[in-house]
Amino acid sequence: MDTDERPPPPDMNQIREWRSILTLIVFIITNTVVSFPFHILIPVPRVAWDVFLSVLARVRIIPLRDHAGPQEDGGRWKMLRWSISTIMAPVYACLFLLATLTIGRDEVHDGTVGSNNIEPYDVMIFFITLAYIAISIDASGLLKYLAFRVLKKAGAHGRLLFLYLFWFFFALGTAIGNDPIVLSGTAFLAYMIRASSNIASARAWIFSQFAVANISSAILVSSNPTNLVLAAAFQIKFIDYTANMIVPVIITAAVLFPCLLFIVFRNEKYVPRAIDMHELSDAEREREPVNPNIPYAGYGEDRTPVGEILNPYLDRRHATYSVSIMAATLISVLLINAITASRGGHPTPVMYVTMPASFLCLCADLLTGWRNRAVTRAVAQRGRTLAERDAVERDLRAASEAGGIRSSNDDDSSMPRSSSEGGQTAIDASNEKPKKPSPWHATSDEERAAAIEGELNQRQARRAAQPKTLVSMACGAYAWWRETFPAASIVLSRLPFALVPFAFAMFILVEALVRKGWVSLFAYGWDEWVQKTGIMGAISGMGFLGVFLSNFTGTNIGTTILLCRIIQAWVQITESEGRSISDRTFWGAVYSMALGVNFGAFGSVFCASLAGLLWRDILASKGVVVRRIEFLCVNAPIIGIATAVGCTVLAGEIYIMRKDEPYIA
């Protein structure tokens, strides 16, 4: 390349300025907080807090406080928790840099609208809209039903079931991404472990599922937002991306399975040769499956964990149209992307395909909900009534244990009060003498029913007498929305909206590093490494960086953004110096980064990916607690095997498919 035709080298003049140094410090601190979130306690004077609540109550935003009930006794100060969470830490960092004038309009523009082929808004809209369709498939019950069919096919053979579930989750993760697998598959496995009598630990099943869900999501661009960022940064056609990733990923999964079964989880307490599953009773087998999307559905019924997996709910119509829309969307995205790229123009934003598709799926969910509203409302009403009765019974039982129960015709003043002298509960009733305290278990069924009915009526009367507030109206509207449109409401509530501010903030922070010269400095270091180690160093080094940075500098999304900018700056450096990067070296680095950031999602910390946080929370809600040290120790050999195998296969593929000629951007 002639000297006059060479692009200028990256600008690094600002790197010694205080704003540049502050940007790097804030970036490092932010990624540390992302990995280790915390909260700050802020003391507020109790008087000021009470005045604030009183003002909100007077303007009918919140209900009036019940001064007759027990009052909060917290001293002179009210402690508020300000959460510095994984999601909000990058947002706070951007606000701080803006307040100190360290960054400005250019960084915010490039971090939201885009630059150098990366368009953050397109990536996020594509991901959210496609996620709606994927989660809608999950809400239909199809994933749990398919898992049930896999379970039935394997029968009582433990290792065969482990094999079937491994490849089942792999296939689903490839098609619809890791989030629906985490949402539905994790709960299924938790129920399956509880339904078996000889699986001593859930470790093998849940960790294998989480690993394979993230490994398989590396195949399709649409399966993960990290893949979208990478494909956009280097203008890779979606079909080309899949063609280059499918072989390393499938071979990685094929090698990983026997390693998991015979090395990592070789003890039979994890994967027994035969699984003893509790059988369903005749009543449970004949019972109509309950729609888990309807609030309070199945409440009060004697349903066991075995029934959750052996008698799953499936809305066939919902599953049919959701799967059809997903298939048509993915095919359209691949075709439009390939046609646009073959013409040499700027690729059409993929959100123009997924937005109409997700809107169509949403309309179908709303229409289905509206047509079935009478049934869903009746189911929800029945379950809610039982839940309210149970809550009243618990309260009355607690009051009885403290001193007695009150009759059904007591008024508001007859609420149990604890005496400060004797510790007994005095019961005041208008125009009649206090009743003698009576233990709940000593009363007859008729007296209990009368007491419950009376308390229910009193609570309903108190609610009706209270003036409407913004909070009460919002709660009522939300209850109506959930009962009328159960599928649409549950899908919208599960959408990863928290990813949007997080991802945009990370884009802005990386753009700040670019403009302050730090990314160019990192690119010079990467260039030195590649010159000394060659193609194998580029593949292994970028794969290691993808895994390491995903776990120790925030999530894999932020890592992908940073590494893409480093590779772009690396190309600019070599062109400015009149050198060239070989085609093998460049694409080896790009695709090993794709492996690294996807495999890094199941590394040493839960927040390496947002799916990890979701996975941990779902397991905790099912009674399976996974601690940080266990997450690290179990995943360490898994990620080591997967990364080594994936990068090795990728290196062989690069040597076979690519030529040792200069890369042309």
Describe, in plain words, how this protein is organized in 3D.
The protein is mainly alpha-helical. It contains 25 helices and four strands. Helix 8 (178-195) packs parallel to helix 24. It is globular and about 95 Å long. It starts with 17 loop residues before the first helix and ends in an 8-residue tail after the last helix. One of its GO terms (cellular component) is plasma membrane. It holds the Pfam family CitMHS.
- Tally of discrete structural domains: 4
The radius of gyration is: 29 Å
Question: Average pLDDT value?
Answer: 85
Shape: globular
Order of helices and strands: HEHEHHHHHHHHHHHHHHEEHHHHHHHHH
Give the class from helix and strand content and strand pairing: mainly alpha
Task: Give the strand order of the largest sheet, numbering strands 1, 2, ... along the chain.
Answer: 1-2
Question: What labels describe this entry?
Answer:
two-stranded antiparallel sheet, 4 strands, 66% helix, 3% strand, cell membrane
Topology readout:
Layout: H1 18-35, E1 38-45, H2 46-58, E2 77-84, H3 89-99, H4 105-112, H5 120-139, H6 142-154, H7 158-176, H8 178-195, H9 203-216, H10 225-233, H11 238-264, H12 282-286, H13 305-310, H14 316-342, H15 351-371, H16 373-402, E3 417-418, E4 425-426, H17 445-465, H18 470-484, H19 486-494, H20 499-515, H21 518-552, H22 556-576, H23 583-599, H24 610-621, H25 628-657
Antiparallel strand pairs: 1-2, 3-4
